[in-house]
Write a structure and sequence with these properties.
The protein is elongated and about 90 Å long. It is mainly α. The model has no long low-confidence stretch (mean pLDDT about 80). It has a single domain, classed as MetI-like (MetI-like fold), CATH 1.10.3720.10.
Length: about 290
């Protein structure tokens, strides 16, 4: 009793004491033993108006034992958050991949086909765009703008097309010398028709593989921004879960079920798209198929 009296009341979890065995260490989280028995809870609901009523009422007891992966410090189901994060990750990653790869392919093929000073100017733009520090700029813009998933997709797409454009340009330099391109040019086809009808379809296999390989990068970027507190607070993402876990000291307190599942989800989804992209590149690329 004397030892317990020295413990500040604010540090005592009354719920744990209520449902634990009356043994030494009852106020210590690691030593308290749960009191297993049948509990009967009585709930009374009062209304201001007698005509009010309650239908389909339910009570959920959270705590660490609730749900497959337990709960966080706010009693939110972690498993449900991880599952909801899959949808956001796939939408964000695929939108980014389609937009960034499309911009890169069109930019690179156009630069290669037009050639001359136009090609030089477009390549200078490409090199200048690639030299911009993306992470500090994203942090700055995310801090100034209202955080939103759509803003993150837009910002990532603006800076994510540079590498694709370089590869597409090298492919376009070879394709524009093909006989079918020269034949189309001899028949009076314009540059726009040749680029979109004859050259870009030949680059489509590379574009599809690049889209699959670009998805993990977008997911990691979003997770990084959300972990820094710059993500959309209204949307449940894996990065947001890790951010909340870090703020609550989950790693220090041994709450592995709060940190490991979203981290594994990021790794597994990223690995899946990398394998899909590699397989597409092997199937659609004739040179890789021969190897």
């Amino acid at each position: 009793p004397e030892t317990h009296a020295r413990v500040p009341p604010d540090l005592v979890d009354r719920t744990r004491v209520m449902f634990s065995k009356a043994e030494p260490g009852i106020i210590v989280e690691d030593k308290a033993k749960p009191l297993k028995c049948v509990y009967q809870l009585k709930t009374e609901i009062y209304f201001f108006d007698e005509r009010d009523s309650v239908q389909n009422a339910s009570v959920t007891f959270a705590g660490r034992a609730y749900g497959i992966l337990g709960t966080d410090d706010l009693r939110r189901d972690i498993f449900q958050g991880v599952v909801m994060g899959v949808r956001v990750a796939l939408i964000l990653g695929m939108l980014y991949a389609v937009i960034a790869v499309s911009i890169g392919v069109i930019f690179g093929i156009t630069s290669a086909y037009l050639g001359g000073w136009t090609d030089e100017l477009m390549q200078h733009i490409n090199f200048g765009w690639a030299s911009i520090p993306v992470l500090p700029l994203l942090i700055l813009i995310a801090a100034v703008w209202k955080p939103s998933i759509w803003n993150i997709v837009l910002l990532l797409s603006i800076f994510g097309w540079v590498g694709v454009a370089r590869v597409a340009r090298s492919m376009g330099l070879q394709l524009k010398e093909e006989t079918y391109v020269e034949a189309a040019r001899a028949m009076g086809a314009g540059s726009k028709r040749i680029i979109f009808k004859h050259i870009i379809p030949q680059v489509a296999p590379y574009a599809f593989a690049s889209m699959a390989l670009a998805v993990p990068g977008a997911i990691l970027w979003e997770a990084g921004l959300s972990f820094l507190g710059l993500g959309d607070p209204r949307v449940v993402t894996w990065g947001k879960i890790l951010h909340d876990a870090h703020d609550a000291g989950a790693t220090i307190n041994g709450m592995w079920w709060w940190v490991v599942p979203p981290g594994l989800a990021i790794a597994l989804v990223g690995l899946t798209f990398v394998l899909v992209g590699t397989a597409l590149d092997t199937v659609l690329n004739p040179k890789m198929r021969r190897i």
